[in-house]
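Journal club prep, shared notes

We agreed each person brings one worked example of a sequence with its structure written out as tokens. Mine is Putative pterin-4-alpha-carbinolamine dehydratase. I'm keeping it raw so we can talk through how to read the token line rather than staring at a rendered picture. Sequence first:
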Amino acid sequence: MAELLTDDDVRRVLSDLPGWSRDGDAITRTVTCASFLAGIDLVRRVADAAESADHHPDIDIRWTAITFRLSTHSAGGITDKDVTLARTIDSLIS
Ligand SMILES: C[C@H](O)[C@H](O)[C@H]1CNC2=NC(N)=NC(=O)C2=N1
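Then the structure, token by token:
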């Protein structure tokens, strides 16, 4: 099972993940897309990556603003799996 990161680990990781911040037991990033459909396309690409990784974000869609919330439910907090998925999401944002 994935290990929970310490508070210090999370701070260190976030300093290298611009746009991401901590929200309790999760990390979040909100992206503003060029249009509603561009946001949906991004969500679709993230969904494919999440399925491949077998690790799934909570996703909030508000017109062009898409918020990704990453937490490892089985561990009850933030793990390397969330950090890896955050980097993948960043790579999918054009
Ligand atoms: C069996 C399967 O690996 C688990 O249910 C996965 C699926 N996706 C998941 N996604 C997230 N965010 N946390 C989990 O603990 C999790 N568990």
